[in-house]
Design goal:
Its EC number is 2.7.2.4. With about 400 residues, the protein is an alpha/beta fold. Helix content is about 35%, strand content about 25%. The chain folds into two domains: about 240 residues, 3-Layer(aba) Sandwich (Carbamate kinase); about 130 residues, VC0802-like, CATH 3.30.2130. Strand 4 and strand 5 form a beta hairpin. About 40% of the residues are buried.
């Protein structure tokens, strides 16, 4: 049960992702962020991911063995967060800050028994509170929990889940998610710098749609945050002195923000509806989007996920697709806007299309995407919608 924030205790949860911790230099920079929060009088709980691409290396080791053992795989995969946890604690001690490292099983964070994709059942924060009262910074290994004495992991992006679960259980004043960019942008600034517009605020539903494509924040973390974290911020660990950030808010109706994501190297699978859904359930792979029309269904996967499966007879595969996702607040209920967007696609070979109240998902062959990308961006800019952040984006020539 969440603790009361009455009295002197001001708890702040700060989560640092893999790109923020990719070297000792990066770790020390993150430590300076924690140091500032401590100097401002906050009790800080740090959640860390594995350093850089460390988890990817561990996955490669696991895949070298021709055996399916998610229990043992979790023991391997959780090692990255354990290394980060220890190094971060040492770095805090180096500058004179008392700190203690804790693994998920030491708290404990109790999960169900689904190894590699476990879900949190309960979080015990008594040890954290004991150390906070002794003026320690508590550094927690993200991504991991425990089930019947066995270590479990929460799935890719699980450190986000750990951070929001702790923030909720501690009734934290804020949960700060540090990445390598200054908050959330209308599209990925690392890949589309000219088109990317910073969003100072974004609604939970909108961010959820964008996170499914750009991995901004884990969807399960968003679900936890919406139910019990009062103040969640996405910030940059690379520019810690800047005030640029994105605040996640609940009232999306007033924001009317557009977001645009491009997800390349996607594969579409088509089959009879029940056959496809049963196959996906049994395969335990991650699916980005599913469309059901009558008795048929289509699913969009990353290439890396597609490589994990053997496609049954009768299933159709369409490779080399780019998935375009446009996110807004209710703008698709206005047919004028929808017609403008779809008009851009008339000459494109659209393979996949879904529309909802707040998003449109379009699957195109890679070669078609190259030709329509600029037109889509410019069309969204020209849509007359009051107070829309996306209208600040310049025409792409």
């Amino acid at each position: 049960m969440p603790i009361s924030q009455e009295g002197a205790l001001k708890v702040k949860v700060q989560k640092f992702g893999g790109s923020s911790l990719s070297s000792l230099k990066h770790i020390r920079r993150c430590v300076s962020i924690v140091e500032r929060a401590v100097s401002e009088g906050f009790s800080v709980v740090v959640v860390v991911s594995a350093m850089g691409s460390y988890t990817d290396s561990l996955v490669d080791y696991i895949e070298a063995f021709d055996v399916q053992d998610n229990d043992s795989s979790d023991v391997v995969l959780s090692a990255g967060e354990q290394v980060s946890c220890g190094l971060f604690t040492l770095a805090l001690g180096e500058i004179g800050i008392k700190a203690i490292s804790l693994m998920g099983w030491q708290l404990p964070i109790e999960t169900d028994g689904f190894h590699s994709k476990a879900r949190i059942r309960s979080v015990c924060v008594e040890k954290i509170l004991d150390y906070i009262n002794q003026k320690y910074v508590v550094v927690v290994a993200g991504f991991q929990g425990v089930y019947l004495g066995r270590l479990t992991t929460l799935g890719r992006g699980g450190s986000d889940i750990t951070a929001t679960a702790l923030a909720k259980s501690l009734n934290a004043i804020s949960c700060e998610i540090y990445t390598d960019v200054e908050g959330v942008f209308s599209t990925d600034p690392r890949a589309h710098a000219k088109e990317a517009e910073h969003l100072p605020q974004i609604g939970y539903s909108q961010l959820l749609e964008m996170s499914l494509k750009e991995k901004v924040l884990h969807s399960r973390a968003l679900d936890i945050a919406r139910k019990g974290v009062s103040n969640i911020l996405i910030k940059s660990s690379f520019e810690p002195s800047t005030s640029v950030q994105t605040k996640i808010v609940d009232n999306i109706e007033e924001l009317q923000i557009f977001g645009l994501t491009f997800s390349e190297e996607r594969v579409m699978i088509d089959a009879e509806k029940q056959c496809l859904l049963t196959f996906l359930e049994q395969s335990l792979i991650e699916v980005e989007s599913i469309s059901v029309i009558g008795s048929n269904a289509s699913a969009i996967l990353e290439v890396s996920e597609y490589r994990k499966i053997d496609l049954p007879a009768g299933f159709k595969c369409t490779p080399n697709l780019t998935l375009i996702t446009i996110v807004g607040s209710s703008f698709l209920t206005e047919f004028e806007n929808l017609n403008k967007v779809l008009g851009v696609l008339e000459s494109a070979d659209v393979k996949y299309l879904i529309t909802t109240e707040i998003k449109i998902v379009i699957g195109l062959p890679d070669e078609s995407f190259v030709h329509v990308k600029k037109n889509i961006i410019n069309t969204l800019r020209q849509i007359s919608y009051s107070n829309t952040e996306f209208t600040q984006i310049e025409n792409v020539s």
